[in-house]
Amino acid sequence: MRPALFRLGALASGLLFGLGLAISGMIDPSKVKAFLDIAAIRTGGWDPSLAFVMASAVLVSMAALRIAHRHRHPIAAATFATPSARRVDAPLVLGSILFGIGWGLSGLCPGPAIANIAFALPDILIFLAAMAVGSLAVRLIRGRRNPDDEKTQAQP
């Protein structure tokens, strides 16, 4: 693994991601809530722009993964990091539901919330602290149930 190249790639992708979120307006919770409010379709108040952002991200990711997997190994890591879990289980469903509720109520998901650190708004900082506490709580609960689970899920 080439740590400097890996870090440079992380820096470049993080910068692109943050710029994309800011330019598209996806760091604004009201814009996200306007997308999630499908009842506003009848009145013309629904904002479909998040669908275009998501579709663009999926298309770019599909193309990049297709190109990347033509190679035997990644440029900046020893192996490709692919998920080992292939089934839908209770933690996935419960986590998805909780994530969706939090996203719907706040209009923020982790990426835009982190991008909003630049503005250092008290609400954003509280959201990020709560998100960190929730993630830590899950890590502690999982660690008590099966310590080996953490090791298999934390593959670089």
From TrEMBL:
InterPro entries: DUF6691
Keyword Membrane: yes
Transmembrane segments: 48-68, 88-105, 117-141
Keywords: Membrane, Transmembrane, Transmembrane helix
UniProt-recorded name of the protein: YeeE/YedE family protein
